[in-house]
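Thread: Modeling a multi-component assembly for a lab meeting

Hi all, long-time lurker, first post. My supervisor asked me to bring a structural picture of a complex we are working on to next week's group meeting, and I have zero experience with this. I have the sequence lines for every component (419 residues in total). Could someone generate the structure of the whole assembly? Inputs are pasted exactly as I received them:
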Amino acid sequence: MIDIKYIRSNPDIVRKAIVDKNEKADLDTLLAADEKRRKLQYDFDQLKAQQNAVSQVIAQKKRAKEDANAELSEMSKVAEEIKIIQSALNEINYEVESLLLTIPNIPHPSVPVGRDEALNEVIRHEGEARKFGFEPKDHLDVATANEMLDLPRGAKISGSGFPIYTGIGAKLERAIITFMLEYHLQKHGYRELMVPLVVNRKTMTGTGQLPKLEEDMYHISEDDLFLIPTAEVPVTNIYSDEVLSFKDLPQKFVAYTPCFRREAGSYGKDTRGLQRLHQFNKVEMVRFVEPEQSEAALEEMLADAEDILKAFGLHYRVVSLCTGDLSFASQKTYDLEVWAAGSGKYLEVSSVSNFGEFQARRANIRYKDPEGKMRHLHTLNGSGLATPRLMIAILESYQQADGSLEIPSVLKPFMELRV
RNA sequence: GGAGAGGUGACCGAGCUGGCUUAAGGUGCACGCCUGCUAAGCGUGUGUAGGUCAAAAGCCUACCGAGGGUUCGAAUCCCUCCCUCUCCGCCA
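Re: Modeling a multi-component assembly
Sure thing. I ran the full set together rather than chain by chain. Output:
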């Protein structure tokens, strides 16, 4: 969330951020509520000070066995007043907090302003698109020919969007995950975490999925728990309500998890094969850094994600999301879009974002800087990578004229493990 | 799920028959003094958030797992919930 003090003194910047991000936050109501809250807090403090002072007098008189009835009756009135203000204060505090949670993060100045994805900025292209001496098939045909997927039975046991990877398909998926994890561990210096796939409401609010995106989440109502839409949620929240030392920073984590998304509102859009799923696998990178380091860390993380695509020899492009396509919590985001050689389009396989202190404020993650000052650290995360569309790109780029699939050389060691 | 014990400031730990404790004492940390260095010793300081102020100092308010209640006054009494540990039950 944004610092209320910042909002108070820079309402225009915040208002512009809300418009640029196509959000519907009610800034005026928030400012009015904040004003009211401060007034009530002042009155409360005054009365409390009086009560504390007179309580001392009462205590003294009682100890000296003197009569304190005058003070007692005076204080019973004050106590009643305090009770009324207290409950009004609780109410307004809740209102301010709730409204504050609906204010989006402010885009970084370098982010292009634009209404929707059409105005995203393609920064550069990398790698060569494979040329075929034959008519390439799309990933679903390749997968079917090689018995790697069973989508109908996945739909039967769970619903559409819940894929079954079969035989060599399952093994390939597992190899991709393991390869990416080991790459980040060994070449990029991340620390691996295995985390819960189910989190509570507070955790979902900490990273910014709630309250806005509740309908996109699978919810276990009996326990008020949510299936994670990304490992970002549990991993970023591991330090919630904690104070780290500057000596602990930076920290870099990588975690593999399945991800669960209801994808409400996107039915019928790009649904063929593995393009859009309710459950998919993803390796996620998360960083905790000092504020001064976050911009450099974003570039580093982008490079970390790109290294995976390079290792597979895939063609891709780097896109800087415009304000309208930026997520609620993000300050700046790069997407990596891999070239699907068979279907002839770019598919998003990674999203690398700097959240500034936005998530750290929500989740209350702080650190002590070298001067001993308490500050909110900055958080970042990036997919490294999400597997389904990577699988699409691999199937389409590595298909052979005879319909078989070549295994990318970097995956071979993971496909050939012996027991 | 059942029974018991417990959750206090960076850490340890007292307070828990309600008011000279709006948190003792210790450790750690910071600064100073002292000793040739280190250690020891001595002294001072030591949280977070909000408010007041041009700013700092100072002062005020809140915070003893969370929320609510009793009371003029709650770390201390009562209720609900959460978490940790031990034992029992169930179970991969």
